[in-house]
Amino acid sequence: MRTPTFKLNAARTLLATASILTCIAAQAATITIQSRDAAGYGFNDPTPAAPVGGNMGTTVGQQRYNVYRYVADIWERNLQSNVNIVVSAGWEALTCTSNSAVLGSAGAWNIWHDFPNSKPGTWYPQALANKLAGTNLSANQADDGSGYGNVDIKTQFNINLGNPDCLAGNGFYLGLDGQAGSQVNFAATLLHELGHGLGFSVISVNTSNGYRINAAGTQYVATGGLPSVWEEFMYDNTARKSWLNMTSAERRVSAINPLQLAWTGANSVAGASILRSQPILKAATPTGALPLISYNASSFGPIVPAVASLGALATITTQGGELGPGCSPFDATNAAAARGKVPIISRGGCAFAIKVKNAQDAGAVGVVLANNAAGDLVPGGADTTITIPSVGVTQAVGDSLKAAVAAAKPYGTRSSPGQVIASLSTDPSRKAGADSAGRPLLYTPAVLASGSSVSHWDVTASPNLLMEPNISSDLTLNVSPPYDLTLPLLKDIGW
Amino acid sequence: MVQKHQSGLRLLRAAGIAVALMGFASQGAVAQEAPVQSNDSLTVVRDAETGKLRNANAAEAAALNAKSAKATARTAPKANLQKFHSSGAKGARLTDEFMSTSVAVRKADGSIAVTHGDANNADSTGHDHTITPVTE
Fold first, then answer.
1. pTM to 2 decimals?
2. Crossing angle, helix A186-198 and helix A126-133, to 10 degrees?
């Protein structure tokens, strides 16, 4: 009799606990925007402004604030917490040149460990820590003298953007409709940055050396530091272990292990079903001459079709005196090799667009650009006269393609040597931006991108995601499937 | 005294220094939740030619506001600050070094790429699906 009573009581306790937790978690989050701007500046800029893209503010300052409020409302609708989230916001003169600018920065301003309902010995961003603890952990803390020492998220954006010496002519677009044109979409940028502040960041690990912040919160340490709440979900497919179980040296290596660091949180893995099939290059003939090869379309030239015949692959030779492969107009030998075909051209010596244009001028119907160093490659550049498609592949793939072309020649005739006909397709068994198990990948380029590596989705994700390191023009202001994977990751860590 | 005063004025004019009398009544803005609108009529400058005070024009007001904001900006803390909670929780207030930074770069075709990193990444060329952001 005792056992059933115990079980009943335990069940009641569990139900009561679950009910309490549900009540706590069910409350929609509230976000307060706390300005640091002086009178007449930033949010208080009285310069008259015409309403734009649904932003009905009549001054520059009002419009800036309206975007902040609009974006905060998006997060409020998607998060639950019974503790108000405070965002400190300021407009400042950040680093600029006429052609580049720091747009802004943001992040969690306080972190906590070992609070009620936390995983033991684990760093959390304050907004999430407060939600889980059910109280504002900084409520009774003395301010540090800054006036914003206890806020959850600190943000700052560039007051000078668009001025002649600060990305001249390309200021923030303050509309809410995404129609930014040549301007910088402030709403999408802010939505992204607040995502970092809410917890989309392995904030307490130094990705350049793998060190963690110590329990006192005062410094990075090689050993003995506390893990970030992110780390149990970060699984390196090469090391076959999560960051939680790695040494600092192993984390440092994992942070620069391209396309191998997967996020294992259940919400994100389930959400990754929104990712499209991986685009691949393969041999149409001879069948099986090539493995299925992942590629990346160049940023210039026509859109590369998802499924199409690319053409017969060809190799070219280095011409005398040229800066690099394909950098000079093709001589007679290379022109004969490339005409009507798809030359494989190695990186180096000149811009990708020059190589492709020279191939096009020689009559090529497409180009495969091969990296000349380790790592994936997306050829960038610009030339509006380029009309043939081009794709980027790794150095190893480039070498294998050249070898396949050489191997195929003997199988033809003297007048018509054997060919490798490449085609473009998709691999339904793989998702673009996920590993072979369907787990979304984190951004880990071979060369560490300070402040960018690890704490973003990988750039191979398709469709584009809000929390990729590049803010794409086709983003919507949605944070959950079927559009995005930001909210699933935040839920994985406890939101 | 008059001569001394006028001499001072000449010095100010020679140096091209505009003296602003700013209205600071609304500058306790740190804790505000909504924008506070300032009144430009509170900003005056001493005309470099006449030596008389007049309302600032738009460019002068903007320049003065920028200087004012810079002068009154709170210095961001440089080191983490330990925190303790009655529950036993321990925390830290971080610094700007922990912030995620967004950067915009004008590409060769004139379009703008927005990417992430630090100010040193400002010469990178981001675009959709950039893995190795290179043009050559």
1. 0.74
2. 60
Look up tokens 């008259």; give the residue: A48
The 3-state secondary structure of chain B, one letter per residue: CHHHHHHHHHHHHHHCCCCCCCCCCCCCCCCCCCCCCCCHHHCEEECCCCCCEEECCHHHHHHHHHHHHHHHCCCCCCCCEEEECCCCCEEEECCHHHCEEEEEEECCCCCEEEEEECHHHHHCCCCCCCCCEECC
* Chain Cα centroid distance, residue A196: 12
Q: Which residue has the tokens 């000078």?
A: A160
d(CA A435, CA A3): 47
The reported pLDDT for the residue numbered A300 is 86
| Cα diameter, chain B | 71
Q: Which of A4-13, A375-384, B102-111 bottoms out in mean pLDDT, i.e. has the lowest? A: A4-13
Map B63-102 to HEC letters. HHHHHHHHHHCCCCCCCCEEEECCCCCEEEECCHHHCEEE
The pLDDT tens digits for A351-388 are: 899 999 999 999 999 999 999 987 778 787 778 899 99
Q: A163 and chain B: CB distance < 8 Å anywhere?
A: no
Q: Which residues of B touch A32 (CB under 8 A)?
A: 33
CB contact under 8 A, B121 and A299: no
For residue B37, give the nearest of A36, A44, A445 by CB distance. A44
What number is the ipTM of this complex? 0.79
The rounded distance, in Å, linking the Cα atoms of A441 and A258 is 9
Q: Does A208 touch chain B (CB under 8 A)?
A: no
